[in-house]
Amino acid sequence: MGIRTKIAIGFVVLTVAVIAMVSFWGAKSLGFTVESSDLIYLEKIKNDISKQTAEQQILLNKQLKEALKAIENANFNDCSAENQDFTKFLLKIKENLELDYAGTFQISNSNEKWKTNLIKSDYQIVRLYNEGPLSYNGYLVAEGLINSKKNIMLVIAKKPRISTNMDDIFCVYDSNGILAGSGFLTDYSLDELQEIALSDSTKQKQINNKVYRLRGFELSKSSKIITGYSVQAATLVKSEINSMMLRLAILEILGFLILGYFWGNKIFEPMTSFKECIDKVSAGQLQEIPPEITDNSYEEIGSVAKSFNQMMSQLSTARATLIKTQKELAEKDKMATLGRFSAGIAHEINNPLGTILMSAGMIKESVEKNLQIENEDISTIIEEVKRCRDIIENLRTYTRKTKPNLIKTSFEKFFNEEKSVIEKNIKDIQENVKISFSFNASSESYIEVDKKAMEQVFNNITKNAIEASTDGNLTIEIMAEETENECIIKILDNGKGFECNLEHIFEPMYTTKAQGTGLGLVICQAIVEGHNGKIYAERLEKKALTCFNICLPKTKEESEGNLSEK
User: Got the DSSP string for 183-211?
Assistant: First the structure.
């Protein structure tokens, strides 16, 4: 079966998936319809409670007027709480009007202090006190001034008497707790009430074999109401419809996955073997695809597999040719490198040997003729032998690459100690060299360094600068700087610069000096890299300066000491 047939099957599967998705979203629409129906009924309960509360508030306002009129007719001179007669009269009013609370408050000229006890809200049901026995219930409140004493406020309160249908419940609460309610909601904690009220959908709770629909509404900034009603246990809410449809969708997906697994095994098994061969090729193992795949697979896959095998055959031939060529080139490069290295050594050794041979011949001739041997000839032989020794020692240093003996020290201390050593070495070579030092780094920077090895680096670089100078007006500037991770020593000179590309100066046996070994800068590089640092040169043409940069890594501040064992 070809790819076209499989695409047709895929289209059928996709059609089935789209139908399932449409059914799923249809079910979600049903869930929204159920949610809307719940919202209408729960909101109706809230409106009924609000209506009953408003009617009882109107009645309480009438009772307040009656109480104020009775107090006025009694003609009390003192309406304060300290007047026992007035207090008894007020208690009688409370009993006659069936009030839950009646009290007076003294109003000062500057502040209505009674309001500090009464906790108002935008809803009609309020909390009387923050503390005390009356603080845990909500009340309907009415207040007014007693005519006989304009600075006395009468406050009366009554618990709301709210009736609902048999299975309807409600709860009014604020940030301090429940104000009024019915049913199991009055036993809920404030956190549980908040969980219901903050939800943007209807909640469903099962209490004592009954299922209740619950939803919260905001009455004001400070109070909320939760209403609920009992339904049949088999009735679904929107969230349950979503959950049910999700399970159905998962079952559908699992069914398609199982079906796709069997189809995929049949269709893509050759592709798996194909991929394994490609992975082996990418790992360097050239391997052709087995005949059972090329001959028995679908026509498109078999065609690609045969083309792949042809490519593998050509690649194997090219690889064998490439390996043979690489071996030949490596052998030629090795012989060329050995030849250059040997030529450099021979050149460096032949010069002093020629001088030694000539001086020895002159000494022999003097001996044969009984002439006096010249001290200059003997001195020349000694100097040239020392030169040969230095060449051999440099070669040994280069080939050994001895690990430096690192000692942790302050960068500033190291730089100050090396200043005098560098200056002395330069003066020993040439007197009229101008030397300057500058330190532009933190005194709290630390490095790990082999001082003796680094002295050799400084000596080689400054010696090269002096030997390259021809006009006798040489200036050397040595600067200490730092970055976030490195301490840098820059050695600058105003010499004529390099007569070659900078990438060649660190090659072994490469030199432009008549009597140079070509190993000085190579040894410097080996020493610096042994410090886990780097060295490089640059020509600052605008300033006509040559600059060697020696970069050493910073280390953490600890007590100074030998770190070679680390």
Answer: GGGGGS-HHHHHHHHT-SS-EEEEETTEE
Using a cut of 0.90, tell me whether the model's pTM lies above it: no
CB-based contacts of 536-542 (< 8 A; 24+ apart in sequence): 536/502, 537/498, 537/502, 537/505, 538/502, 539/497, 539/498, 539/502, 540/492
Tell me 113's DSSP state.
Answer: G
Residue 546: beta bridge partners? 493, 539
Three-class secondary structure of residue 161 per DSSP? coil
CB burial of 193-205 (b: ≥16 within 10 Å; e: otherwise) equals: bbebbeeeebbbe
Cα separation, 463 vs 394, in Å, equals 15
pLDDT score of 124 more than 80: no
Question: What is the spatial distance between Cα 453 and Cα 550, in angstroms, rounded to a whole number?
Answer: 13
Count of residues making up the chain:
566
Contacts of 529 (CB under 8 A, 6+ apart): 535
- Please classify residue 485 by burial: count the beta carbons closer than 10 Å to its beta carbon, then call 0-12 exposed, 13-18 middle and 19+ buried: exposed
**Contact residues for 401 (Cβ-Cβ < 8 A; gap 6+):** 526, 530
Count Cα atoms within 13 angstroms, Cβ side, for 103: 15
**Which 3 state secondary structure label does DSSP give 60?**
helix
Mean pLDDT across the chain, nearest whole number? 75
Q: What is the DSSP letter of 104?
A: E
Whole-angstrom CA distances from 551 to 227, 399, 531, 558 are 76, 23, 9, 21
DSSP tally for the chain: helices H, then strands E: 10, 17
- Residue where the block lists tokens 């040239």: 384
- pLDDT at position 566, please? 41
CA distance 170 to 229: 9
Integer Cα distance of 100 and 557 in angstroms: 78
Backbone angles phi, psi at 481, to 5 degrees: -135, 180
Closest listed residue to residue 439, CA positions, set 470, 416, 467: 416
Q: Distance (Å, rounded) from C-alpha 6 to C-alpha 299?
A: 13
Of residues 163 and 334, more confidently modeled: 163
Distance between first and last Cα of the chain: 68
- Asked if 181 and 160 touch (Cβ cutoff 8 Å), the reply is no
List, for residues 272-312, the tens digit of each pLDDT value: 666 777 777 766 666 666 665 555 555 566 676 677 777 77
DSSP 404-420: P--EEEEHHHHHHHHHH
Rounded Cα–Cα distance for residues 272 and 339 (Å): 53
Cα–Cα distance, 9 to 4 (Å, whole number): 9
Give dist(CA 104, CA 152) in Å, integer.
Answer: 6
Is residue 81 within 8 Å of residue 87, measured between CB atoms? yes
